[in-house]
Amino acid sequence: MSSREFSLPIRVYIEDTDAGGIVYYVNYLKFMERARTEWMRSLGYDRDFIFNHNLMFVVRKAQVEYLAPARLDDQLLADAAILEVGAAQLLLKQRVIKENGDLLSEGKIQLVCVDRQTMKAKRLPRELLKTLREQLT
What we know:
Layout: E1 6-11, H1 26-42, H2 47-52, E2 55-66, E3 75-85, E4 89-98, E5 103-115, H3 126-134
Antiparallel strand pairs: 1-3, 2-5, 3-4, 4-5
């Protein structure tokens, strides 16, 4: 992982699993969402910044591969690294890996910045755009 990638530790709880004790597939997307949220927070762009600029990010496209299962009580890392930055959109590479390094899931997530009221695409604020471009891997 490069210094520009963000990684969030996650423990698998019973609520994350199916009846067989394996993490339900949609929860990998939730783990990725948490990593994106904490990554933005680590860059200084928390909920207050987003709300004060009348914007939000929506997922436009998610391509995810599931490679191996996680199980109850596993310790995971969900990471995020930016691949592309446009005027109003981002493309991220995200992975969920076991603490031992086994790759469980990986994907590319495209986000679009939208106006909170109209839900139409909106340019990223200049300051945020600059910061995100500095994070390109």
